[in-house]
Amino acid sequence: MATITIIGTGLIGSSMGMALRKNGHFIIGCDKSTENLEHAKRIGAIDISSKYTKEIVEKSEVVILATPVDTIEYILPKLLDDIATDTTVIDTGSTKLSICKTVHNHSKRRNLVASHPMAGSEKSGSSGASSNLFENKKVVICESGLSSGKSLQTALNLFKELQMQPIFLSPQEHDSMVGLVSHIPQLIAYAFASMRELNQAKNDGWEDIASNGFESVSRLGLSSPDVWLPILLQNKENLIKNLRSLNQNIELIMSSLSKNDTDTLRSIMKKAVSARSRFNFSKNQLNKSNELTLQLK
Amino acid sequence: MATITIIGTGLIGSSMGMALRKNGHFIIGCDKSTENLEHAKRIGAIDISSKYTKEIVEKSEVVILATPVDTIEYILPKLLDDIATDTTVIDTGSTKLSICKTVHNHSKRRNLVASHPMAGSEKSGSSGASSNLFENKKVVICESGLSSGKSLQTALNLFKELQMQPIFLSPQEHDSMVGLVSHIPQLIAYAFASMRELNQAKNDGWEDIASNGFESVSRLGLSSPDVWLPILLQNKENLIKNLRSLNQNIELIMSSLSKNDTDTLRSIMKKAVSARSRFNFSKNQLNKSNELTLQLK
User: Fold this and answer.
1) Do A265 and B240 touch (CB under 8 A)?
2) Chain A contact for B48 (CB, 8 A cutoff)
3) What is the pTM of this model?
C-alpha cells in the first residue's frame, strides 16, 4: 500500500481517491478550495488534507496531478523539482501535447507518466465524484518511452486497480482524437445550449416539452467553464479544424433543406448512422445502469 | 374498454399498443412492414394484425395514426373519410402545422385530436418499443378548439392511461419549440456523426477512447432517416433559422479560440450553463434507470 498525494480533489481527483482509498492506500489531498477538500474528506476520497509542501510530495510514492490543465502546466515543473528521485507523478490532463512539451527537457521527466483517463461527467468538484467512475474505461498514456520502467509500472498498477485499460498514443494522436470525440461534443453542447432562442423562450413552462433528445445533446452544456476553457485553448488548432468541418455539414444540411434535396439529406443521415454504429457503448451503458440502480436502493 | 386501431406499429405505435393493451383495450395493428407487425404481436403490442380497410377503422372507437409524418399527411384525409361519425382519430406526428393544414377544412376535422407525444429514442421499429416510454412525459395537443368535446375527452383519457401530461399549443408554437428542443438536437447529432473525420479515423480501435460525452451528443445520429427526413422537411423554415443561429455560435467560438479571447468563450459557456440549468430531467433520469434495471433482470 502506498502513500498517494492527490493535487486537485475535483471530480477526477476525488473519484480516484475514493477508489484507491478503498484498496487501502493512504491518500493526502491538496486543493486550493477548502470546500472541495472538506467535501472530499467527508465522502472518503482522502484520509487527510494538507497544503502543498515540498515535504509532502517528497515523501509520497505517487503524486496524482488532477487540476485544470492550465494549472497542471503551471505546477508540473515545480512538482518534478520537489519530488524524491523515486516518486511517480501521474497527471490526468485532458490535453497532452502542451503539457508534455512543458516538461520535455526536465531532469525528472522520467518520473512522470502523462495520462488521460477517458471518463468524466458534466458535474465538477468532489460532489460529483464516484468510486466507479473509471470502471471499464480507457486511459491514454502518452510518451511512455520517456517514463522510467518503474514509474510506468507503478502507474499501470494503479490504473489496473481503477479497472481501466491503457492505450498508448503520441501526444499529437491523443489531442487530435480526443479533440474529436470529447472536446468537440463539449463545444457542440455549449454552442447549442447558449443559443439565444433557448434563452428567449416566450412561453412559461415550455421547457417541459424537452425530452431525452434534448437532454442528451445539451447535457455537457452544464460543464464547468473553469475546467473546460483551458482544455479548449490548449487544443485549439485541432478544434478549429473540426469545427470548420462541422459547420460545413450544417451549411450543407441548411441548403439541402431549403432546396428539398432529399438525396443529399439522406446521404448525410446514412453516413451518420454508419459512423455511429462503429461505436459500441453497451458496456458503459451497463455500468451507468448499475450505478443508477445502486443510487435508487 | 375500447377497440383501438394503431396504424404504424413502429416505436411510438407499438409502445402505445403495449401500454394500452395492458389496460385491457383490444388493439388492432396495421403496418406496411409485416416484420414490424409480427414483432409487434410477439411483444404484446397488438392483439391482431390486419390490412387497412374502411370496415376496420369504421368499427374502431379510436384510431391512432403513428406513421412517419409524410405518410400521416397522405393517409389522414382518407382516414377521416372512412371513420364512423363518433370515431376519435389521434395522430402522433412530430410536426403539427403541415398536418393540421392538410385537414383544416375536412368535414370530420372535429374527430381528430392533433397530438405529439414528447417521447422517443434513437431506436425505430417495434423492436425499440417499451410500455413505459411515455410515463411522466408531456404530450402536445394542437388546435384543441377544432376537436369535438367527445374526441378531446377520449384522447385525454388515453394519454392519462399512458401517464402523460397534456400541453395545449398552436401548431406554429409547437413546430417552433419542438424544432428547437427536438429537431435541432437530432440535426446536430447527424451533422456531428457524419463528419468525415469520424469516418476517416486512422488508428484501429481508436473508437474505444470515446466515452460518455461522445455517446451522449452523437446517440441520435443512429436514428432512422425514414422517420426523420419528412419531419425535417415539414419543419424546415424553423430549422434553417435555428441552424443559422447555431452556426453563428460555432463561428464565434472558432474566432474566439483563434484569438485566445477567453472573455467571449467564458460568456458563451456561462450562457449555456444558465440556459441548461432551467431544464430539469431528474424524473426522466429515474425512469430511464428503472427501465435499464428491468432490462438487466
Assistant:
1) no
2) no
3) 0.88
